[in-house]
Amino acid sequence: MGEYVPSTMDWVAAQVELYERSNGAEGVTLRDTGLPVIIMTNKGNKTGAIRKTPLMRIVDGDRYIFVAAKGGAPNHPVWYNNIKADPNIQIRDKAEVFSMRAREVEESPERQRLWDIAVATYAPIQVYQDKTDRVIPLFVAETID
Fold first, then answer.
1. Would you tell me which of 31, 59, 72, 145 could form a disulfide with 132, CB atoms 3.0–4.6 Å apart?
2. CATH code of residue 26
3. Whether pLDDT at 1 is above 70
4. Domain assignment of residue 132, yes or no
């Protein structure tokens, strides 16, 4: 992977820096919600740079679920294209770091079950889906064996 390039969104860059500097002791919740986040590290699909994004901590056993909601915006978040181009990612969950592979879960009973887990963890996800015309992508990340 290339060199780490912090997010242009100040709050994202600051949260990643705090989370990593404190080894997951600080910066572990989404802004003022009190809800837990993890840090996803991936490779930028255009630049090859290392990108880091705080995402809601949504789990299914030892797997992580990511919802590309972007607040219900009409387009996907940038990290969506990065993962589609290279599904090999790293997850930092507080002090633990895992090498994982992400896959998009298409319309299926598995997707509905994972969607229900995501909404139970962070209810606004359903609100975001209701306010956009796009089907919000859902990914599951599994440990690389």
1. 72
2. 2.30.110.10
3. no
4. yes
